[in-house]
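User: Let's play a game. I give you a shape written as tokens, and you guess the letters that built it. Ready? Here's round one.
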């Protein structure tokens, strides 16, 4: 595969010569801070679930926040791939400034959509009528969604900044900002629940908004310092707004489709056996799974940054799969040993009934870290090559299979909601992997 001019502009620290590929040390230097950052981010739902699990009405608070958060992620979906776009296209100052402005305007547009959904009668149509969420859970979730409607703006801006930092090898600044974000979240959540013990999911929403804003400020400071040091050339890529939009549009669609799976899962959980209990149990199961597998999400950005040619791609792929095998072993250790009860009962404060309900789903998710890593590698290399339409079509396949699994599960099989969610998640990723492998090159 030919190396483009834009790829040749990458700093030397990001990739070894084309004939060799990056060394393990180079990959670790770039990946470890990203993994720490990702680990801190996946600790967020853990912290929130721990806090909400100790409120006056924990089952209702957990269910309401789960519904609101899944919808908030769907609304903010168009901005999620700003990070990947910035990694792939921030070759110089002019291109980065363009991506920065693009992220700002996109964030404002998404904020407006979030308010329309959460404030108008459209909320009832989506949550109660289409998703079939119980009325009391939907009522508790609404104010939280209204609060979370504001977070796309700092998130989109932050992701544009992070892309430049990844591109220039300054990933330590990203992990540092994420640690501060996590501390801010924990302090704000604890303080809010002490002051407003009945606030529940609403307090969690405010804490999330505050934490992402603090992180955006810190990451912006880091990028400004990088620009002052002259690590980014002034011009060279000649990226135009029309070219950026053409590159980004499939990625935005990808995120929208992918995040649609979350409310789809919640709808399936609610319609399945033990729906309300499963709505409370699934966020905890998912947060424990991503707590262990979460560093695998950053492998998509690692592949995007380093897979400049076929030799580099092969080395990155081996590195990623080896890491994910370790995460599978760790998740299996927790799911199959008494550590499960320690985590679910001692840390998350789940009742014995909810622990028993969640256990089969946890077992089903043991292979999840490996699937996540494979997904990140295949998506990352295609984004690097500009094959964003292939990434989009893979996510379409994923969500279609998730929907089909939910329909079959609810109508024909009849598992509990939490088990159905775990099965649908796994089958969707497997279908996407098969599609991406079949598509091959652009």
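Assistant: Ready! My guess for every position:
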């Amino acid at each position: 595969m030919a190396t483009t001019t834009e790829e040749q502009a990458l700093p030397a620290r990001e990739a070894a010569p084309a004939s060799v590929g990056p060394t393990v040390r180079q990959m670790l230097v770039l990946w470890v801070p990203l993994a720490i950052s990702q680990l801190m981010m996946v600790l967020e739902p853990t912290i929130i679930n721990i806090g909400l699990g100790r409120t006056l009405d924990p089952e209702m608070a957990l269910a309401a926040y789960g519904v609101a958060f899944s919808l908030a992620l769907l609304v903010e979906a168009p901005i999620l791939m700003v990070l990947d776009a910035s990694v792939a296209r921030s070759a110089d100052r002019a291109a980065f400034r363009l991506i920065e402005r693009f992220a700002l305007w996109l964030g404002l547009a998404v904020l407006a959509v979030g308010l329309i959904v959460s404030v108008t009668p459209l909320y009832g149509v989506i949550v109660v009528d289409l998703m079939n969420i119980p009325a009391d859970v939907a009522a508790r979730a609404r104010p939280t969604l209204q609060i979370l409607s504001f977070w796309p703006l700092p998130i989109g801006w932050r992701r544009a900044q992070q892309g430049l930092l990844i591109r220039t090898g300054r990933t330590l600044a990203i992990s540092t900002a994420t640690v501060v974000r996590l501390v801010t979240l924990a302090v704000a959540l604890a303080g809010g629940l002490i002051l407003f013990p009945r606030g529940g999911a609403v307090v969690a929403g405010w804490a999330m908004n505050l934490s992402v804003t603090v992180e955006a400020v810190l990451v912006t400071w880091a990028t400004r310092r990088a620009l002052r040091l002259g690590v980014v050339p002034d011009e060279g890529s000649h990226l135009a707004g029309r070219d950026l939009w053409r590159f980004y549009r499939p990625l935005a669609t990808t995120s929208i489709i992918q995040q649609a799976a979350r409310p789809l899962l919640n709808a399936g959980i609610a319609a399945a056996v033990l729906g309300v209990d499963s709505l409370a149990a699934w966020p905890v199961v998912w947060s424990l799974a991503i707590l262990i597998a979460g560093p695998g999400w950053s492998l998509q950005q690692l592949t995007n940054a380093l897979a400049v040619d076929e030799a580099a791609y092969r080395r990155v792929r081996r590195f990623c799969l080896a890491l994910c095998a370790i995460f599978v072993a760790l998740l299996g250790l927790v799911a199959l040993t008494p550590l499960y009860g320690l985590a679910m009962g001692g840390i998350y404060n789940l009742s014995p009934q909810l622990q028993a309900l969640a256990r089969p789903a946890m077992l089903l998710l043991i292979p999840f870290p490996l699937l996540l890593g494979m997904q990140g590698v295949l998506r990352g290399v295609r984004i690097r090559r500009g094959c964003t339409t292939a990434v989009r079509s893979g996510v379409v396949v994923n969500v279609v299979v998730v929907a089909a699994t939910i329909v079959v599960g609810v109508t024909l099989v009849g598992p509990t909601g939490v088990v159905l969610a775990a099965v649908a998640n796994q089958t969707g990723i497997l279908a996407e992997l098969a599609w991406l492998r079949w598509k091959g090159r652009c």
